[in-house]
Amino acid sequence: MARLQTLSINGKRLNQSIDDLAQIGQLSNGGICRLAFSSEDIQGRELVRRWMVEAGLSTCIDTAGNLIGRRNGRTNAPAIATGSHIDTVPCGGKFDGNLGVLAGIEVARTLQENNITLDHPFEVIVFADEEDTMVGGRAMAGTASLDAADYHRKDGRPIDECVNAAGGNWDQLSLSQRTRDDICAFVELHVEQGGVLETAQKQIGVVQGIVGMQRYQIHITGRPNHAGTTPMDQRQDALVAAAQVVLVVNRLGKRPPAQQVATVGALQVWPNADNIVPGQVQCSIDVRDLNQYVINDLIDDLKEELRLIAQNTGTQIEIVPQLNVAPSPAADHIQAVIAEVSINLGLSHMPMPSRAGHDALEMGRFTDMGMIFVPSAGGFSHSEVEYTTPEECINGANVLLETVLRLDRHYR
């Protein structure tokens, strides 16, 4: 495909915007704390809103608290949208989420400065509370619960009060829902948050989709007894059973085609004493893959393995579902455009899944979705040491710019 434009974003300005936003909520260790709906988050959103206006975008806040900047197109066709989030974990970095928002604004600035009007409207979206409830993205996709009691924020604040404080309207949350008639494509630029691109020495990740996720609690019941007087062949040791569960989960996660991941991330033992054979164990299991059938098969095999472990250890094992999120595949044609743009710009690229959740996951529920990854140094994210070079940020933003331009022609 021939190159459609010779435009480039202003890389110096983009990276200055990243640094400027990072001043809001900055911690003494260099990390960023801008929890969703906090005063720091509200301050950051106001700065981003001002930048949107300066870039020629009209702005509004929908009923879920999503901040939306919009540049009208030549037609009333559905919009091409981009964006991410600016809220952080308690000690996050300055790239997670922020790059996608600020690169979107930089695309708008570039269109404004070059007097380019797309056929489609162009939107930049700052999603509300990505790091906790994902209420913004879910409301836009129409998958959010309308009952405030269903949300349990880590800071304990009621979700309805939070959304209202951010300029939303909880009582009219359903009005935030969008459809394909509103948005024909959504493309999110994001730092990888892992080390795959860096290890492969690739500059751009073409995201194939966002993995589905299932979480379970495993309850193992044995029989507590004296650690000194109970012979080994008379024990019903819940921790021994749990150890076998951990190994089975690890083995299932590694089996071909080896794209899935499976993790035991939390373990609690009772009575948790030096001289008592453990009587109860509770552990968590997290399974992720792009293919729902792979997840289902893995869980089916796990349940059979749990049955055998219980039988061999004299314990009882119960598996309790906790979370079920379906995969969200990226649109094939958007993947192709991102790959072609990368080649056009002389950037190495590779296809890869996103094993972390993003706002694009929810957007993919109702419209064509794609994601662009750029490398994370050392694979670190959600940390003060999170780092993506200025050049890599520029590369990602330029890929986003040209992807938007090409999609504007694709959907004619």
From TrEMBL:
InterPro entries, per the entry: Amidase_Cbmase, Bact_exopeptidase_dim_dom, Peptidase_M20, Peptidase_M20_dimer
Gene Ontology terms for molecular function: hydrolase activity
Alphabetical list of CDD domains matching this protein: M20_bAS
Transmembrane residue ranges: none
The Peptidase M20 dimerisation domain, residue ranges: 211-307
Swiss-Prot/TrEMBL keywords: Hydrolase
Stored Pfam families: M20_dimer, Peptidase_M20
Domain of life: Bacteria
Family: Belongs to the peptidase M20 family.
UniProt cross-references to PANTHER family, sorted A to Z: ALLANTOATE AMIDOHYDROLASE, ALLANTOATE DEIMINASE-RELATED
Listed NCBIfam families: hydantase, PRK09290.1-5
UniProt name for this protein: Zn-dependent hydrolase
